[in-house]
Amino acid sequence: MICAGNRVNAPTCNCPEGTYETNVPTCPSCDEKCATCIDNSTNCTTCASDREQAPPECPILPPAISSVKVTDIPVGSAVTVNCDFKCKTCAEAHNNCITCDANRHQPPSCPCLAGHFESEEVCHPCSYKCVDCTSADVCTTCSGNRN
């Protein structure tokens, strides 16, 4: 069985992550503020990694400094730690992400979002042909009815 439009997982033919159900063959995309949504593009069920994790609104995160949060430490003992490239903010160690950089999620490790691949420390979107990929056009899972 082959799914219509951009639907995946035959025979159930669900909408792929980052889209929502409208009972038509092609599932529309969620708003950029949403990682996942339901009923409409702006009703987020999970927020994009660059947004405050407060669905369904997912407000923009306030500007942050890419260093460890300094709290309750003796005068003169503060040390600045540069966060890992995967982190927007970190605490205690460079790779202990509190918030993730663009197109990443699930701190503290901050892997690329589904439908993205990592190259030169940046998460890039997969081709429209892919649900998941290892590079722009090398799909590990194809979208729609592709093999």
Order of helices and strands: EEEEEEEE
Rg calculated over all Cα atoms: 18 Å
Helical residues, percent: under 10%
Uncertain parts:
none
* Helix run count: 0
Keywords, please?
about 0% helix; 8 strands; two-stranded antiparallel ribbon; about 25% strand; two-stranded antiparallel sheet; about 150 residues; mainly beta
Describe this structure in words.
This protein has no helices and eight strands. It has strands spanning 34-37, 44-47, 87-90, 97-100, 116-119, 122-125, 130-135, 138-142. A hairpin with a 2-residue loop joins strand 7 and strand 8 (138-142).
In short:
By secondary structure, the chain is mainly beta.
Present the secondary structure layout.
Blueprint: E1 34-37, E2 44-47, E3 87-90, E4 97-100, E5 116-119, E6 122-125, E7 130-135, E8 138-142
